[in-house]
Amino acid sequence: MRRVGILVVASFLVQSCCSEPCVILGSEDLDLSIHWKEVHECLMTCDSDDCGDGIGFDTDLKECRDKESNDTLTSKEIFIYKDCPQVGNKIPCTVDGLDLSGTIIDTRSGVENAEACQTLCRENTNCEAGIFKADKSCILKNEIMGLPVVKTGFALAMRSCHQQPCSIPNTDIEGLELHVLSTDTEKDCQLKCGNESMCLASVFDREKKQCHLKYGTKNAPSGTNTVVTFKYCDCPSITDPDNRKMVCTDPKLRVGSHCALLCPERFDGSELAQVTCQFHNDNQSYHWSGDLSLMSCPELVGIVVGGKDRTSTYLKSVEVFSNDEDQCQAKKLPDYPFDVAGPVSGSVDGFGIVCGGATNSYVECTNRKGGGKVCDRNVEYVETKGGSRWYDGPKTTQCHYYDHELTHTWLRTVDLKEARAYASSAPLPTGELWILGGLGSKSILDSTEIVGRNPITTAWYVKPGLQRLPRALFGHCSVQLDQNRIAVIGGFWDGDYSAQVHTYNIKNKAWALEATSLNEARNDHVCKLTRVRGVMQVLATGGWNKNGALNTTELMDVQTRIWTLQGKFDKLPDFEDNLETFPSLRRSAVLFGGSSSVMMVGGVTCGLDNDLRRNCTQMSSSIKFTPHESDPSLDKWEKMSSLKMSTPRSSHTLFHLPKAFVCNNRN
Fold it and tell me: Among 294, 314, 334, where does a domain finish?
């Protein structure tokens, strides 16, 4: 729809709106109901400072025209005054004391108040929320995380939010009257409004049993027999049962507002972690976008699968890792179908699934001091730039899921399209698992695949990934930043170790190289999204690069996307005597925990440089990341002496399941 200058011709016909003209038709032949949506869109382009008295819409040319009230109209034009009562981009809705994570798309200074900040957001088509600060700055954001953080001096202004109550007795509405209908009750009248796309409020006359559908929301005095019912109403209230807490962007729970689930330590949120208040046309009512009963904080355990032991023998043993010193900790589960190292895993439709990995099929190999194998021949290896050969054994395409419901065993399901090991995986908003890159049979892979399960038919499937990686990678890690972004961090590519971070935007279907990289290139490291000092951050730790094994941890604020190095130990303890006590120097480990707690489980502990790197051993212990309340320099890893695996291992995988699924007498 184009917007052009003024065209003056012909005469007009006035259609009254309350006591003043609101819409003017160029001829009696024009049907306002047919063009009302287009007229409304024209009005939304009208800025009070530059569009005259209002906007004219040419029904033939589909053009919007700036016009004055004394201009004449063609027979095909409709004019609407800019002061005609309206909603949508004019109603304020702000919440003091809250900030919201997201991508910053613009920052304005000298903004008067939160409502003005909200107006700026609504004028920017890419903006989803505005953050107004006490210094009169306004930060416009999109790709919001939906998890508000309490911050003094901040105010949250959501783009789509409505402030009306459900109904107001003894009141009328100033606005264009769309239809007058006969109804029996005010609820019936409200439902009629819901069926009319341009209706914003209805006025029900109790005495005459008449329903007036109106485009407008400004209250006007009336008699005692009328009641106003608004199309945009509030959603059902949300409580905080048991161990969960709901944090909402709007305490009145109005349309467009969000509520997110926060769980305490040792618990994690279900896959449904956020809901939005919506109006549903199917039953003409106000609902949350998801079933609130599914928003729970179950206590989780980790299911540890495979890996390598201290003799570099591949493992098929499976055990439970729990946060508690109870009978479930280190509980043995049925073995995986074969020995495997470097597989990927995740949760799909409530089931834990393991895919790919390398198998223990070497030929003429001997164990190397400090770990690893030396092979004269191998049925499979990958040679990278510079002549390095990676002997990990044949890769597999097989996927197996743990049936916690019926058989309590591993069941084979789909096969990947390409055999791969040391890939990464990330959950998708669809509930599927995205598997990315890895070591293939003959090369490093840039291909990706998606594994899913139909919740109705229970059939598993595999399909091509959203896109190939920007470059072939293995030994990297992946994190779901929010409902729209997946980050791929570090890894090994093109003969070197990478510090780069690439982010995939699901909505835009494109990869982007982040402007800031890791402070240290990393391979064989681990990463996870977690809440640190009230802010969602990506934690990346351990791994190794050309300088040897790493004992550093980095945090990336998902809002600023800047990585901060958390520090490292200046001195090594006596290596031979402290293999199980030195906490921070690990690679080939896994991470366990929820949104507010992270523990590193197992892995290899080594020296800090290439000469000492051969002095490595697999660990059974776990260490917990403990951030300081306010000082990042005091963040630390603490050894959890009583929480360890029964088998020291590295290159294993871990997925989470609710504790009740595996820690009962039936398993």
Answer: 294
Q: How many other CB atoms sit within 10 Å of the CB of residue 585?
A: 25
Q: Greatest CA separation found in the chain?
A: 97
CA 39 to chain CA mean position, Å: 36
The position carrying tokens 């190999």 is 365
Q: Are residues 537 and 581 in the same domain?
A: yes
How is residue 615 annotated by DSSP? S
How confident is the model over 125-146, as pLDDT tens digits? 778 778 888 899 999 987 765 4
Unique residue bearing structure tokens 């209002």: 54
In angstroms, rounded to a whole number, what is the distance separating the alpha carbons of residues 146 and 338? 42
Phi-psi region of 63 (alpha: psi -120 to 50; beta: other; left: phi over 0): beta
Phi/psi zone of residue 253: left (φ > 0), alpha (ψ -120 to 50 degrees), beta? left
87 within some domain? no
Distance CA 74, CA 182 (A): 35
Q: Are residues 593 and 548 in the same domain?
A: yes
Residue at 127 is within a domain: yes
Report d(CA 257, CA 251) in Å as an integer: 9
Residues 26-39, mean pLDDT to the nearest whole number = 69
Helix, coil or strand: residue 77:
strand
DSSP 226-288: EEEEESS-BPPP----TT-EEEES-TT-BTT-EEEEE--TTB---S--EEEEEEETTTTEEEE
Pairing, β 167-169 against β 226-230 = antiparallel
Pairing relation of β-strands 167-169 and 201-205?
unpaired
Q: In which band, very low, low, confident or very high, does the pLDDT at 413 lie, cut at 50, 70 and 90?
A: very high
- Beta-carbon contacts of 32 under 8 Å, excluding residues fewer than 6 positions away, are 15, 23, 25, 39, 78
**Structural domain of residue 46, as residue ranges?**
2-81
pLDDT tens sequence across 577-598 = 344 334 456 888 999 886 667 8
Domain count, the chain: 5
pLDDT for res 3: 40
**Claim to verify: residue 504 and residue 404 sit in the same structural domain:** yes
Are the beta carbons of 440 and 420 closer than 8 angstroms?
yes
Any domain includes 330: yes
Whether residue 265 is found in the same domain as residue 281: yes
Closest CA to 469 of 446, 441, 444: 446
Q: Are residues 656 and 545 in the same domain?
A: yes
**pLDDT digit string, tens, across residues 151-160:** 677 777 665 4
CATH code of the domain in which 150 resides: 3.50.4.10
Structure tokens at 539: 């934690």
209 lies in a domain?
A: yes
From CA 283, how far away is CA 261, in angstroms rounded?
26
**For residue 181, what are its two tokens?**
């209908």
The two beta strands, 63-67 and 77-81, are: unpaired
507 plus 527 within the same structural domain: yes
Which tokens hold the place of 533?
Answer: 């000092």
Q: Whats the size of the chain, residue-wise?
A: 667
Are 9 and 73 members of one domain?
yes
Q: What's the whole-model pTM score?
A: 0.60
User: Which H or E run contains 17?
Assistant: strand 13-17
Residue with tokens 């019926």: 406
Task: Provide φ and ψ at 196, rounded to 5°.
Answer: -100, 115
